[in-house]
Amino acid sequence: MSDSYRTSAGIVYFLAIALDLTVLSVIIIIGLYVGSIYIAFLSVCICAPILVLLILLKQTTIYFLSENGLVTKSLGSKDEIIPYSDIKSIKESNNPISAKALSTDRVEIKCRNNKSVYVSPTRKQEFIVELTLRIK
């Protein structure tokens, strides 16, 4: 079994990409229809970075089961290390709360300090089994 798990992307992630592409397309078409290349250029300047950011978030969000604990990495945020000894419980969750997870099909990890961490690994069941083995 692998010690690293990429994040899974849920429907909200794909809807955000679809919405961004739709807005980009509509504004470009309107800009070209009214004869203003500036409107089309402006839409690319606004929508393209959002699309790139969404793709980068998917590619850079990863979870590692290291020797000492669970490490969560994501673009634009500090790596978080959760020692195995601090983990109280692990359960499946669909909580939409903000987290280092791009899907609502998540794993809730409760820690001793009453903090909950939500992750959305691609191989969720394997992740739960492997993490459970390491916290015992």
Could you characterize the architecture of this molecule?
- The strands form two sheets. The chain has a four-stranded antiparallel β-sheet with strand order 1-2-3-4. Strands 5-6-7 form a three-stranded antiparallel β-sheet, covered by helices on one side.
- The protein starts with a strand and ends with a helix.
- It has 136 residues and is of the alpha+beta class.
- Strand 3 and strand 4 form a beta hairpin.
- The protein has helices spanning 11-33, 37-60, 124-135, and strands at residues 4-6, 62-65, 69-74, 77-83, 87-93, 106-111, 116-119.
- The chain is elongated.
- It has two domains: 11-59; 62-135, Roll (PH-domain like), CATH 2.30.29.
- The chain contains three helices and seven strands, in the order E-H-H-E-E-E-E-E-E-H.
- The mean pLDDT is 87.
Number of strands: 7
Helical content class: 40-55%
* Uncertain residue ranges: none
- Along the chain, the helix and strand elements come as EHHEEEEEEH
Measured distance between first and last alpha carbons = 18 Å
Count the helices. How many? 3
The CATH homologous superfamily of the largest domain is named Pleckstrin-homology domain (PH domain)/Phosphotyrosine-binding domain (PTB)
Mean pLDDT: 87
